Amino acid sequence: MMPASDKFFHHCLDVFLVVTLIVVVIPLWSTITQSFRPNTFIGSNLEGMFLPPWKWSTAAYHALLGNNGFLLAFTNSLKILIFGVATSLLLTIPMAYCLSIKTLPGRKLLTIFVLLPYLFNVGLIPSYLVISGIGLTNHLAAIFLPSAISTYNCLIMRGFFEGIPEELKESARIDGAPEWYVLVRIILPLSKPIILTIGLYYGVSFWNDFLHAMLYLNENSLQPLPILLRNILIASGMNEFVEVNAFGDAPISAIKAASVFMSAIPMIIAYPFIQKYFTKGTLLGSVKG
Amino acid sequence: MTKRTVAKGKLWDEIKHHRSIYAILIIPAVYYFIFKYLPIWNGQIAFKDFTALSGVMGSPWCGLKNFVDFFHSFYFWELLRNTLFYSFGKLLVSVPLSIILSVVLYESQRKYLRSIVQTLTYLPHFLSWVIMYGILLVLLAPGDGVVNDIIKACGGQPVPFLTDTKAFPWIVILSDAWKEMGWSAIIFIAALMAIDPSLYEAAMVEGATAFQRTMNITLPSIRPVIYMVVLLKLGTILDAGFNQMFMLYSVPVYSVGDIIDTWVYRQGLLEFQFSLATAVGIFKGIIGLLLITISNQLVKRMSDSSIL
Questions:
Q1: Chain B contacts of A201, Cβ < 8 Å?
Q2: Chain B contacts of A115, Cβ < 8 Å?
Q3: Quick one: pLDDT at residue A248?
Q4: pTM for the structure as a whole
């Protein structure tokens, strides 16, 4: 039997959770409902939040999916996502593995080599000079190559690799296996959670990148989704960035909300699948790191 | 003498044994030279009068002129004030919120409610600030935003939240808290999971109420983690959130919204003041390096003597 004071305490917890839930859901819900708002709807956006689903209209989504500019931006973003995650993992995994080998001569030096630029950040302009200097301007690679190894992700991964029992690695080494073999046959099969987690982190950062795209991609045909999304959002009456006719007869506010939702969709779809890994992965990584 | 040669021989053997490791290190190392060390090398233009025509090496040295110019400009104090205001504001709002959230999630006995809240509060962390800007427009637009609808329904005057110098700082701090609260709670949840359950059993035998158990067992147990999180945040105090500010601010709120990073961006890439912008970047980099080193040392010292 729970004492009365404990009951009250648990009621307070419930209230806090419900309030949190409402605070998190309202912004998401108002955006989603606005994207399904029919052209014929009269009333405030507040009233629109309570419009029953059978009165919703998918006109905004039809308009977006029928728009070549939107599809092109979506494809560009997908390309950046896929090539970016692949490049990042191919570069980060070896680096993290090398850092995790305790017997490697020069390990300390290597750690300093990796940490120094992470701790001493000289800012935007010097990197801009490098990236435009080596001719990455107007290449999709300009989005993912400069941040292909995130030192933070690399250190989390190193922590995970260090946590893999030494005996497993030693048994392979005693058999005379070279180090790359240990990495490919012993370490990688055990590292699914951390690879998925770090892959997700990279994927999110590339999908969401705005700054690099703004700095280095000047051609319209290369623009990724965040740039187009911002152009749609700041276009009050749909000006030179976005032609109004291109989107049919859906209300402009619905187009804006629908493009917000469409930009978030890949994250929302991938999220539940990887959610169970990221808590596990980061925890294991951070405990050691 | 002999001992040393033996050691040397051993080292050589070790290096030889690891040669395939050095081989797989080559590409990431080259990557680091190009994308992480070349920028540091280019940082020298902070001490030069850089023009694109003469290049990094060809531009003439000018000593500390760029730094002096910045410290004497009237922007300096405004930028520093805004940057520190947002960093501390976010720290003061979102750290307590995420601690409370993690403790409530940990103490709650409603399994489904708990996992729904957990899943939904993590989600916004994965949304970009462009998307957040879209959501904020739906909520806060002066004409037809949901919040202004509510204000109007209650008989008030609509507020132009994103262009009003009084409301804007709150929007920045609260939208950041909304986006990151759940994600920042993860580290506290992890610490809570490690608490020894026998502590609670002992307290229950002694007749402690649930509230007393929370105050006297749960919170003290995660105190080291709280210190650690706060210290590490203090180490990056000059990063007030470029992506967020860049999306949300506009000319009417520059006076309260401009932070060091947004100013560097505008000076460097819109006004082409490469050297001045780099000097500011380096100034920020040096302070950042000092702070992060100090806070890291403190975390290390603390975690030796504390429960962690």
A1: none
A2: none
A3: 62
A4: 0.90
